[in-house]
Amino acid sequence: MLLWVSLLTLLLLNSCASRKKFVYLQDMEMGVKYPMESKYEAIVHRDDRLSITVSCKNPELAIPFNIYGGNFHVGSDGNVTADASTKVNEKGYRVDIDGNIDFPILGKLHVEGLKVSEVTDLIKTKIEEGNYMKDPLVAIEFLNFKYTVLGAVGSNGTFSADGDRVTLLEAIAKAGDLTSKARINRVAVIREIDGNRQMFMHDLRSKDVFDSPCFYLQQNDIIYVEPKYRKKDGEDRGWQIGTTLLSVVTAVCSILWAIK
């Protein structure tokens, strides 16, 4: 009995050690302040769809910039009105393969590689330079911000997000968190940069993940959580089977001891 109890204790200690290795952000300290990037902005990529709305103090002047494939006319009193058949831009402005959008009045604008604030400034500048209106207000949102999560997580797939401010930890949580087969120190983010794909590796046990350029995701990022090797999986199954057998033997021994 002493032998069986000792073996069971060793297994339980090993199990606790494994769980400790799986703890996120182990090196964070209570009460310590860690800086964060509060002014993060997503970068526009090809195939993005942007919702762009222009407004000003005189709403009629902004109508031509909010028309998508429709017509408008200027009345004798100077008021600008849209035809009843005009369709509002519901699908947004798609960034084409060359990184451009076709914007009303202003024509083609190259926006790939720009931050949201930079696209906003570009449109405002073009409107003011053309003397179309003074002090225009431009609002931009992503309509198809998405990322993909693969590997040892609860649910593999492509996920969409409201807005453009999604963190790596939020993405993993939305995918059902890491499974028991995940290598917590081998979480990769594959990102397209200047026409090339680049991989960034992360260890979720460390607070250094907050300093990663991939802590905030970009459009079309791929997150890959590396699973344990097959050899390790076999060891895990061996431990599971051994623990089960040990539990059964311990229970039988306890019953026999009680009867005796």
Please characterize this protein's 3D structure.
With 260 residues, the chain is α+β, with helices and mostly antiparallel strands. It is built from five helices and twelve strands. The protein has helices at 2-21, 59-62, 116-129, 168-174, 230-259, and strands spanning 49-55, 72-74, 80-82, 93-94, 100-103, 107-110, 137-142, 146-151, 157-160, 182-193, 196-202, 222-227. The chain has a five-stranded mixed beta sheet, covered by helices on one side. A hairpin with a 3-residue loop joins strand 5 and strand 6 (107-110). Helix 1 runs antiparallel to helix 5 (230-259). The two termini are 13 Å apart.
Topology:
Blueprint (H helix, E strand, L loop, with lengths): L1 H20 L27 E7 L3 H4 L9 E3 L5 E3 L10 E2 L5 E4 L3 E4 L5 H14 L7 E6 L3 E6 L5 E4 L7 H7 L7 E12 L2 E7 L19 E6 L2 H30 L1
Parallel strand pairs: 8-12
Antiparallel strand pairs: 1-4, 1-7, 2-3, 5-6, 8-9, 10-11, 10-12
Please name the defining characteristics of this protein.
29% helix, 12 strands, 260 residues, elongated, alpha+beta, three-stranded antiparallel sheet, single chain, five-stranded mixed sheet
List how many beta strands DSSP finds: 12
Q: How many helical elements?
A: 5
Q: Order of SSEs, N→C?
A: HEHEEEEEHEEEHEEEH
Largest sheet: 5 strands, mixed
Please summarize what this structure is.
The protein is α+β, with helices and mostly antiparallel strands.
